[in-house]
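Appendix B. Worked example

We walk through a single record from start to finish. Start with the input: the chain for Type VII secretion-associated serine protease mycosin, Mesobacillus persicus, length 473.
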Amino acid sequence: MNRSKIILLIAVSTVLVIIASSSLFQTQEINRIQNIKETPLILDGTKKDSHLLQINNVTRGNKLKHHLDNRVEVTHFHHNQQDTSHYLDHEVAVNFTTAPTKADLEQILQDIDGRVIKQDGLLLLFRSNSIETPEMLEYFQGKPKVDYAEPQYLLMQNSIRNANGLNLPNDQYYQEEYQWNLPAIGTEQGWTISRGNEDITVAVVDTGVDLDHPDLVNRLVAGYNVLGENQHPDDDNGHGTHVAGIIASETNNREGIAGVTWYNKIMPIKAMSAEGYGTTFDISKGIIWAVDHGADVINLSLGNYKESNVLKRAIRYAYEKDVVLIAAAGNDSSQQPSYPAAYPEVISVSAVSYDGSLAGFSNYGSYINISAPGEYIPSTYFNEQYASLSGTSMAAPHVAGLAGLMKATNSNLTNKDIMSIIQNSARDLGKRGKDIQFGNGLINVNQALKEAQVAEGGKTTRNKIRERLNIFR
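Next comes the structure step. The output line below is what the pipeline stores for this chain.
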């Protein structure tokens, strides 16, 4: 593969700007930043599905399991390390010994805030508007005239797992092993715990997102164009689309790439121009808009070496609203703190090369919290293309995607919890312990999700169902 490289440096003298942290570099000069502007490597998007079919054999049944694992109204619990069962949340099947009277039934529906959605003789299926299945089971346990109550289980066709025990996505560039970055951070194992869900939204404050890209169109929620003051945050640069694809490209759809999260949503915020820069005012306005419109995580693949009160205000606003903030460290191979990455409310991300070393372009310093893959990262690109880019801009969205997966795994986690778990679960690189190159180390998706499941602050529904049904006995 011919790997062309790009560095994006925008010089602006009249306004304080945020520089998009995206760069590709010459293989022969891996440790030197080049002040040139080239075209990013565009991946060949002309290959047909027939090519993919020859190298992929993910069964329909396993795909269905993956889908159910992450449906908002579907919950699953593990019988052991590999076997799971699914049931519909907020629903309970109750078999009565004798038919409940009209008064009894009205009282039940009032108590569970629900209704009867199906009935077969003495077997009634209840659905609650607000109460989860474990609490409903507790309610019916020991009630007069109740024979038994159980979740509304889902049955599906049997199928065979892949040889390696992992059900991997069938996306073209994933199958062709361009996406070295996801296996390197334990994403494949992490997907057995969670692939995200559609209730969790990651905002990308950037150059916008290609609103018509086939690998993103189903992943988008309503966004905002700060520059045009309208609801059309289309990308005219490519950078924001690339960042968005790393986080949540449509996964397992036989084309393009796989995202870190399969189901989380992307909120596109256009706050930077076609040239790749934006003012602190516009960036800050974009952050605040994202917070006010429901973003759980905000990715900021941008930076500047000068502190800004305007930007600091927006960062603090988001942090106080329990939003997780992730920012790229910058691409100048410099120890100078970059903002917003250096703010304590933000997870600062340096870039790792495919050989596990600090990428030659990556900034570093005591403010670095974590590291992630940032070299030759394939992703979506504007004009419905795919491209391979490098930069700390590419490293940051790996962390944003992980934060989204963690929130999907345990909705009770605060932004502080997520920041702490990401750092504490990382795989140590470089000098032992925290260092100025990798921070706490390389993100570990699998370990972070394991810790998120059992984190203080709330039990997952899976754990509650285990306890209340005593499924291991």
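Two observations about the output. The longest strand covers residues 84-96. The domain at 17-56+170-453 is CATH 3.40.50.200 (Rossmann fold).
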